[in-house]
Amino acid sequence: MSAVSRLNVVSARSQSANTWQQPGGTIARSAISVPRASSSFSTSSASAFAPFNGLVRSGACGASQGIIPGFASGALKRVAPVGRRALNVQAVAAPAQMTTEEYATKYGFEVLKTEFIPEYNSNATLFRHKKTNAEVMSLANDDENKTFGAVFRTPPKNSTGIPHILEHSVLCGSRKYPIKEPFVELMKGSLNTFLNAFTYPDRTCYPVASCNTQDFYNLVDVYLDAVLYPNCIRDKQTFEQEGWHHELEDPKEEVTFKGVVFNEMKGVYSSPESVLGREIQQQLFPDNTYGVDSGGDPVSIPDLTYEEFKEFHALYYHPSNGRFWFYGDDEPSERLRILDAYLNDFEKVEPNSEIGKQKLFTAPKYVVEKYASSDTSEEEPKTFLAVNWLLSEDRFDLQTEFGFSFLNFLMLGTSASPLRKALEESGLGEALVGGGLEDELRQPTFSIGLKGVKAEDVAAVEALVMSTLKTLAKDGFDKEAIEAAVNTIEFSLRENNTGRFPRGLSLMLRSMSSWLYEGDAFEPMKYTEALAAFKERMAKEDVFGPLIEELLIKNPHRVTIELQPDATLGKKMEQSEKDKLTSFKKSLNEEEVNALIESTKSLKLKQETPDEAEALKCVPSLALADIPRTCLPIPCAVDTTSDGTTFLRHDIFTNDVLYVEAAFPMNTVPTELLPLVPLFCRCLTSMGTDKLSFVEMTQKMGRKTGGISVYPLVSDLKGSTEPVSYIMVKGKTMADKTEDMMELFVEILKDIDFNDKPRFRQMVLETKAGMESQIVGGGHSVAASRLDAMNSAAGWVNEQMGGISYLDFTRELVKRVEDDWEGIVKDLQAIRTAVISRQGTVLNVTGEEKLLTAVDPSLNSFLASLPATGGVPQQWTQVMKGCNEGLVVPTQVNYVGKAGNLYKAGYELSGSAFVISKYLGTSWLWDRVRVSGGAYGGFCDFDSHSGMFTYLSYRDPNLLATVDNYDGTGDFLRGLKMDKDAMDKAIIGCIGDIDSYQLPDSKGYTSMMRHLMQIKEEDRQIRRDQILSTTIKDFQEFAEVLEEVKMNGNIVAVASADAVKRANEKRNGLLTVKNIL
Predict the structure, then answer these.
(1) Which of 6, 266, 780, 969 would bridge 952 by S-S if both were Cys, CB 3.0 to 4.6 A apart?
(2) Residues 215-250: tens digit of each pLDDT
(3) Is 379 a catalytic residue?
(4) How far apart are CA 933 and CA 930, in angstroms?
């Protein structure tokens, strides 16, 4: 994902995923395929912070940016049997003689185009529904991970956030599913591999995916009913809950604004990167729909009326404005039958939703804007400077798209890329912003710049960008750089790896980049011929120089944006909101005040009153009997050599791609050097040797591999006070380049020359800037890290390498680079000496059997090149002193955490804890923290390795009220009543998480993690049996366990100074204050 997304994609929902069977580690995503638009809380994504898998996200991103932007790639996985109590939409195989045209006619469709897409082994057919003109793309293939999507063009005219609020609201009950939250019921009891919704600047997407056919059709039916027949257009309280409303509980109190989207967007607008991204989009597109914020500006959201909200749905949520997508191995004719059952209720209309084009400027512009910063005496450079272009009057043609996508990678794709390198090494700023090419809207854009710029250097940043572009246009790129780019891109296309993001969804979003604008829906899915033609062009002519010259240097549609810090802006915005609310209250007479109080009570009563058990049965689900009783195995052969090296081999089909992880024990690193470990890891892939510069090393990795990464992994180990700790070296390559990759492993581990002061200094600045951005946008991650550090040595180590302590370390390290560079080099060399050896190393290899056999000589040669032994094992025993903290940052929302260790209170692990934890996140915490409290997310997690039970909230308007809700969890469980259907749903949802969809590389990685964490297959089966036999008694007994968190847990809140001050005034100095930003 680019550093700043201008796609302003905001997602409706949050979901947590259990990690007991997939401990630790983030699965690598393809650099080419996952669409930049997604900001979903994927049901099976894995976060770097174990307690809240899949919950780290910004307001505008979630998936990685493509090398060739948007080109999708793939996935495969499991099948589960069809269950009971499901919709009557079981697939009925079409008669053998029925052709595509025949079943299309039978269900009211006509065939517009049919084509085989060899890149994805898919038969693709574009249909049109005769009665409504709705278009349907149907891809039939052998991928078990079936995907559906409903997409509507939803161009807003203002920044009141109508599309975003509607995206939230339609999933709150519908005609066939008239309960408060069908979406949440699906989260509880579905085997979905994806369940979410996205708001773009010009469209709204409702995708689902599942490997179970019946479950898939259940999801499709709920989503179709939701978008076409939502209750929110008849129930104003849903609009108030998800969008905005005035809240008043006592006539003596002040009126406040509440609403999930309102608070979400307050969080978004607290991030300077998000402010910059929105400013870029609106300044580049001042005259069309992209000139406003589809997510909603918190200042404008309260201007939205319920009537406008209803009219927007009537205008745009109509089949005539819809594009529907199916993908996978289910029966194609059944797809049309299901759709026609809905579409046939409608008549054709003219939605008038076409996305207008922005006319190109005749001269460049310079814009100065402000963002809310902290009031600090430190004179740190805080200005952002981005240079931005609108590249074309319309979509690129395919050859231009390939050309500029390659150019984008050549200029910015690696740390050795010349435009990126020039900016990063200039000393003018701390880190890149802008993200390069964005091509998912009607017209493509390009942005690049720096943050952390001194006021006097802003002009130099723009000058450097332009001068570097002129040099590149004149001199071009060297042969090695182009060869590396071609290999990297071709590898990504062949690997076809979208991580946990469904292949079908990636393809859908890519197809929409043309289809949505009346373009060819097929073309974006095809690349083979166009890539071959483009490579021929590159061999014959200078492709890139003219692109730079015409689309960038000579392009007058350029906007340079200077975003300046303003320490008073936050208070001004807060005061403006207070004044607006005060004025509103003064305008009310006594009767109107009482009516507002009653309205507030009525909404809260609805929010806090659960649906009747009988009503919840309307939502279809599978049966518990359909769930496999045994754990899903991953092939793994274990072999330990005499010198202490362990080989793990996974015989899995990988399409001739080899995946290798080398895990080096890290417990030999002295305690005082731990904060330096992440930068040590980065040095290994971002510096040169005595023979090759870092540019040459980067190009060599690009030519020979699909990527190499190095990172530390530290986790608690159940039953031990000593952490599991490794430095992971991870690589992937094609079978014929295995020897090259293993030679590169040796070079980066043994030969990297750390003595590159300017390069290291830039890494430190980028790390510091990244940490500061993370705190504002992902404060829940920061809170969880602090809470873990108070619990165990592993938590403390992770805090030293990635939390607030690490931020403090990097700030000091900036100074140390100037004062003690030789000492830093010595420390980096000491870490290498301590860690890199054969002793205790684990080599994890994933590929088909013939590849595993062929690679053995290269692996043995790699090991033979390493020292036999490394450093002496250290004792890491430090734990941060437990306390309640208020971490102060400039933000309009809060992130509130509370946690305690259940093992220390005597709890014995049972699989039922995972069922209960997930259930709490979709019931009590969802209802109290999100729905009633107005936070964007409220969730909890039980870490079975450490025993930590952690509550967290995300973009939360409350602080103490959220803590009180956490503390009320035990009482909720004691009073809970669940019938068999509700219990079965909770169990099925939990199983869906632990049996989560995985690609071959992540299967191999998961198996390795189980080995490192000493998780045996029999232990996994015991936990599964406990999950499947969970009863209401387990829920009630867990209530007593959670008393430990209530009575002895610690609180960490990332919040504004005023929020922390108010909390301390009400609770007698509850929080120890620490100013972070």
Answers:
(1) 780
(2) 999 999 999 999 999 999 999 999 999 999 999 999
(3) no
(4) 5
